[in-house]
């Protein structure tokens, strides 16, 4: 796109994003402002994308442009040669945090000199803490008492809320996330957690509004798109839901959950529901749903798996030995303990998604109870008769539940451990079962 074409895209009152990228001095607030501008106006995003195709040599403006568009590897590549220039290091740090390398920020900002550096370091510690790093968690807790350069910023209430959410003090965390967002709308971490908690409390409209606000401020966030798609699906907006899940697959074609959710949304959109799929039952899939807490593990192994977010055997088998051993306090003894459990179940570490969650192709294995008996007993009736909402029905798919009795054998904890399954869906299932004089397993 030449200068004449660019001028045709922009009205005289529209800011020129390229000029803003070349402007100096600048800071993260300036960069986030450019990002918000180009994502609010698709035509301007097109201007930046076209301009980036013409940038063949690393430069600060080109690196900033890559960051604005969410191309973090390119941003790092273009900016690393300008690390000594004012304001560049925090942008590289944010990009490194986004690609899963928070150690870069921790190494470079041990003694932050600006709020941008301090915020980038704190974000890096958060990334580490979310993987179970105890040292990172200690750093975050210390920040509450000594925020330093971030005193008075949105980071302070956000971190307080983050810590309270870990303690399941949800209402208090909600208030702090709201405060953080009001203080700094560019702090998308606060907006995301606020939306997610509102979603879990059944406040769908507010959650949708917040998720959409995130998408209007920057590049597509896969977690945001997944959660937003599920909310649209709950409201019967299957076209919007499909677009969200497809957007995830455009970024990551092998995303298993997005692929599954897209198929479900498309099926619902076409007013069809494959009840045969619900009726399929497979011993391996049932085993993979088994909570880790059902096994007699050592305290160390149980704590390590909990911190890694591993709740079921299905979560565990997709991990490799190296991934497990890379976590703090997880050693060979814990590894052998886990391998023994998996071998007893005919499983192993390092199984890929499709291999682990194989579709049922054979007759039920020994030990799997075939549902027979009195057809008038509500427990023997097909699960489809409950007429559940889309989100609750997805749990049926995940657990391969085919009768109401199968559902009654599940506990509340098992259902709540599933991604994106909240209190609203649990209440729905409780009510449906109560109408039949039934309940979940206690």
Please characterize this protein's 3D structure:
- The chain has 442 residues and is mostly helical.
- Among the domains are: 1-99, no CATH class; 283-356, Orthogonal Bundle (DNA polymerase, domain 1); 378-435, DNA polymerase, domain 1.
- Helices cover 62% and strands 0% of the residues.
- It has helices spanning 3-9, 17-22, 28-40, 42-53, 60-69, 72-79, 88-98, 102-108, 115-129, 134-145, 155-166, 170-183, 188-200, 204-215, 222-234, 238-251, 256-269, 275-279, 283-288, 299-307, 313-317, 321-325, 332-344, 353-356, 390-399, 404-408, 412-416, 423-435.
- Helix 5 (60-69) packs antiparallel against helix 6 (72-79).
- Residues 1-12, 271-281 and 358-373 have low confidence and may be disordered.
Characteristics:
442 residues, DNA polymerase, domain 1, single chain
Topology:
Layout: H1 3-9, H2 17-22, H3 28-40, H4 42-53, H5 60-69, H6 72-79, H7 88-98, H8 102-108, H9 115-129, H10 134-145, H11 155-166, H12 170-183, H13 188-200, H14 204-215, H15 222-234, H16 238-251, H17 256-269, H18 275-279, H19 283-288, H20 299-307, H21 313-317, H22 321-325, H23 332-344, H24 353-356, H25 390-399, H26 404-408, H27 412-416, H28 423-435
Structure summarized in a few sentences:
Helices cover 62% and strands 0% of the residues. The protein is an all-alpha fold.
């Amino acid at each position: 796109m030449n200068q004449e074409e660019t001028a045709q895209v922009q009205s005289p009152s529209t800011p020129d994003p390229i000029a803003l990228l070349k402007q100096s001095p600048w800071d993260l607030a300036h960069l986030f402002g450019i990002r918000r501008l180009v994502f609010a106006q698709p035509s301007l995003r097109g201007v930046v994308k076209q301009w980036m195709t013409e940038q063949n040599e690393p430069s600060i403006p080109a690196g900033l442009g890559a960051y604005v568009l969410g191309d973090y590897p390119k941003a790092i590549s273009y900016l690393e040669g300008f690390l000594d220039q004012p304001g560049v290091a925090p942008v590289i740090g944010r990009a490194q945090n986004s690609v899963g390398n928070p150690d870069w920020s921790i190494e470079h900002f041990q003694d932050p000199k600006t709020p941008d550096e301090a915020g980038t370091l704190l974000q890096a510690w958060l990334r580490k803490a979310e993987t179970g790093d105890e040292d990172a968690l200690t750093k975050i807790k210390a920040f509450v008492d000594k925020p330093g350069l971030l005193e008075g910023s949105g980071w302070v209430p956000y971190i307080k809320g983050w810590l309270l959410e870990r303690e399941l003090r949800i209402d208090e965390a909600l208030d702090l996330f709201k405060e953080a967002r009001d203080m700094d709308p560019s702090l998308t971490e606060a907006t995301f957690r606020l939306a997610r908690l509102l979603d879990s409390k059944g406040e769908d409209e507010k959650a949708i509004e917040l998720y959409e606000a995130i998408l209007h401020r920057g590049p597509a966030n896969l977690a945001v798109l997944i959660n937003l798609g599920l909310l649209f699906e709950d409201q019967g907006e299957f076209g919007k839901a499909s677009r969200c899940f497809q957007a995830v697959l455009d970024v990551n074609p092998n995303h298993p959950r997005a692929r599954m959710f897209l198929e479900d949304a498309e099926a619902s959109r076409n007013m069809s529901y494959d009840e045969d799929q619900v009726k399929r039952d497979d011993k391996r899939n049932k085993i993979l749903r088994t909570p880790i807490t059902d096994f007699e593990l050592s305290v160390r192994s149980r704590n390590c798996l909990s911190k890694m977010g591993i709740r079921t055997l299905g979560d565990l088998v997709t991990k490799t030995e190296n991934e497990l051993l890379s976590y703090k306090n997880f050693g060979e003894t814990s590894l052998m303990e886990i391998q023994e459990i998996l071998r007893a179940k005919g499983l192993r570490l390092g199984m890929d998604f499709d291999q682990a969650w194989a579709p049922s192709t054979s007759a039920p294995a020994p030990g799997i109870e075939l549902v027979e008996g009195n057809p008038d007993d509500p427990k023997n009736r097909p699960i489809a008769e409950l007429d559940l909402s889309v989100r609750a029905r997805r749990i049926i798919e995940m657990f391969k539940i085919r009768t109401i009795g199968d559902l009654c054998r599940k506990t509340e904890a098992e259902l709540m451990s599933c991604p994106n399954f909240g209190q609203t869906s649990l209440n729905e299932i409780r009510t449906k079962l109560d109408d039949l004089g039934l309940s979940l397993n206690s």
